[in-house]
Input
Amino acid sequence: MPRILKYTINPALLAVLLCITLACVTTPSRAQYRSDRKYGFRIGFDLSRIPVHYLNPYRTDLEIQTDLRVDSDFYVAFDGGWNKTHLENKPVFEYNSNGYFVKAGVDYNLLKRKYPGEANMLYVGFRYGIARMRRNIPEYQISDPYWGNVDGHFSSKTLLPQWGELIVGLKAEVLNNLFLGWSLHLRILTTQNIDKQVRPYLIPGFGKATKNSVFDVNYSISYRIPLFHPKPKKKKPEPEKKASVKTAKKAAGQKEEAPQKKATH
Amino acid sequence: MQLRGIQYLFIGIVACLCFSCEDYKDCNSPVATSLGIHFYHLVDGVERDSILPALTMYGIGRSDSLLADTAAVDRLYVPLNPNADSTGFFLQPDSTMAHGDTLTVAYTHSLQFVSSGCGFTTFYDIDTVYYTTHYIDSIAVPTKKIITTNATNLKIYY
Output
């Protein structure tokens, strides 16, 4: 593995290889383990935003991810977060924005379980996101040697961009109910002409908005709170059923006796 | 299980680092946008490239600064005025000619953030083109949006 990592620079390729590996390794039939009862509400935090902040100090992001298992392999997911951006390169420009976002969608687990309680996930998902952000450009300057430099500013403005998001990811239960996972995100803006004057540089929850689609990687740590464990209901024996059981036993006894009678002949 | 977790952690961090690196305060690529003009002449309704032998061109209001000074050109990229909603140009195909034509391009414009280093640039969307017809036969607008420095936005037929 280290040798592969040494020569394979493209992380997307690594992700694909890992997904294929996991899909191939897991062989048992899923139907055998559909009845596991580890349901719960999972809440997580996107750790990848920390190195992003240190690599790109102009942006500060926070993202909380939650999901709730509603079926054997289906999860309803809600994410939310916040972003603050401050870009400054005087006298060329100064740009500020901040805002928050919410995303809602579903995840579907593709991983076949190796054992009944396995909670590792290889999943695909979809989200629809909306952000409410405020951008402000106190000053900018565009150099134009022919017509003269352009100096100006744009006052604060509130924007509501929206987008759709496709996700492929992994979550591994490293300790009981504690998960580490990473995911690849393709986000596509659905709001056209977010701002006719100045297109925002960065949209909370979406990322850089210089293009209509962006690719992103998240790395999250999450904890599953086992809120409920649906268990099979124990049915109390009813008189009618008892009677039917007796009848069945009687019938079975008759069947057992029948060969003995035959044997006596 | 734990080994797999560590593997995910490592790959995740590598992926994050690779996808997140970004230059800051470096501007290494051209960001200005230009109106691309391509000159043609029509022969029996068929367009052919036309090299103007000695084109003189300047922006109206900037006659002291020529965009083309008796130059033999078949295309030209000129700046639009980002402080206005229209820009006028004077074009004289040949310095020996007595007159020239005026070309006025009306547009809407918006700012586009290019990068942390380069700041903003201006994108234009051509609305209408007005022109005189001393020498110009007609003008076509194949590309209305001006977002680069090397597209053909106007075809001028002589």
Remarks:
- The longest strand of chain A covers residues 121-142.
- Chain A is about 20% helix and 45% strand.
- Residues 40 and 226 of chain A are 4 Å apart (CA to CA).
- Chain A touches chain B through 50 residues (CB under 8 Å).
